[in-house]
Protein 1
Amino acid sequence: MLAVRVHETGGPERLIAEDVPLPEAGPGQVLVRVAATGVNFVEVYQRQGLYPRPTPFTLGGEFAGTVEKLGPGVVGLKPGDRVATAAGTGGYAQYALAAASQVVLLPDSISLELAAALLLQGLTAHYLAVSTFPLKPGDTALVHSAAGGVGLLLTQIAKRKGARVLGTVSTPEKAALAREAGADHVIDYTQTDFAGEVEKLVGKRAVDVVYDGVGQTTFAKGLPLLRPRGTLVLFGQSSGPVVPFDPQLLSRNGSLFLTRPTLGDYTQTREELLSRTEDLFSWLTQGLSVRIDRKFPLSEASAAHGALESRGTTGKLLLIP
């Protein structure tokens, strides 16, 4: 089969398409014939070596397709089932493996490409808004990169919860998308200081939660915007890792809460995974919108990574075997 592998960490050019043996489904696993794979920032970090893995390796944890074979001990699934996962192995390939406990069956109404575009970012937006900081009517949330894949979904879910959403973006086109998703106020951080603009809009220390997937360039400015005992949710670092800081900053800014969540910790049980996906699938029927920015052939994975790293994307990037 064709797979994209990393033999040496580094830039996008390190993604090499080559023929490799078909993987074998082990105990509790399923082999999936991949129809579409989501491209995510965690894979950029893995490719760069920031999240070390033994080489060579094949990226890709989020994909959708049809079950090809069942490993020993798998029940409740059969060949031909349409499934998706956000926690698989080797999704940058024509066939990939996933633990049966981490795949979800897809309703007929959801295409395989839509599932691959939704699952990881949708589950992330879900736990951020429903569990990490459970939004309620009247809350004020600052969402960085509001026109990105997570940002667009998070904004929509936050509005479903009755929150007021302030979104940051980098272009007029992205501003239009964030407003379309329901953001009450959109701030172009290339044209104005987002922290000053937030204070103009809602007042000083008036934000209940900051959802920050950007990291290095936004983190320090976000803390003083929070109300006393407000929460900063750092769920990514697209601009680079946050530099070490004195925890007294949290005290001086009003006994703030800081958390660095990961999806795995919010889908620890199958019951939790299914509960979140059931919400997402239901919301799709009620108007939740998933934006697919671009689709790339599997052999052009390096171009997909380049597009993602440019931070010029709006919505999801997919690889199509």
Protein 2
Amino acid sequence: MKNLTPYILIAPFAVLIVIFIIGIINALLQSFGYIPALELTNFTFDYYRDIFANETFMSSLQYSLYISIMSSIIATVLGVLICAVLVYTENTKGISFQIVRLPILIPHTIVALMVLSVFSQSGMLARLLYNLGIIASQDGFPNIIHNGSGVGILIAYVWKEAPFVAYFVLALMQSINKSLGEAAATLGASPVRAFFTITLPLSMPAIASAFLIVFAFSFGAYELPYLLGTTLPKALPVQAYIEYIHPDMKHRPYAMAMNGIIIMLTTTMAFIYFALLQRKTKELEGDIHGQ
């Protein structure tokens, strides 16, 4: 019985993985026009060609890429800065660390509600500025929610993702700083110089991995673009859902083709992340054998 315990424990996870893989395969088959229930049985690339010729799809793709790239870059920079502050102030296990970690635990729908409550024209910040006499009316507060710039979505993603980047990079940066960083300090290097010449460059594999993870997530996420996004253009996951619920069931392959683009891009990010991880593992194994 003891020999079966690991398999019993992993069984629920394995079932979920199988269901997930089946769903991915089914979505890809439908994106190529194979839906027997709708009498579509011929494999074709026409749906992919059609969506790339569609202006609405291209606008959605560009908007999603803009949101993902901008939020990931800002979150990565802020996350690294937060991580550096935690490491250099030696607050990696105290209350400061727990406060930084808190946004990771909060669901995205709650984050969207928070952004609406604070940054909308009827939100707390607009009311505060109005009561202080800084703006003449609440309508004078910049409309950063539901507009084409996507500022509301960026705020929500950065608030969630920057702590994740800090948490992801923390262990490696702390280890580097305790060894090489302190050695550089004893040789006369200032903390700032030691950080930019030693700690930061050596932490780049973890930073790059964190960037890829938050980029892939933000590109494929639905909640925040739906709740905080503009009417047009819509983020790609939102546009795919609109096509999915279209009254004409023959639109289903278009929705799945859009999902196929999301799957391909996020899978590419996953392979790049895996390649970085493998490369770092080989480097570590080489260092160990060299010693």
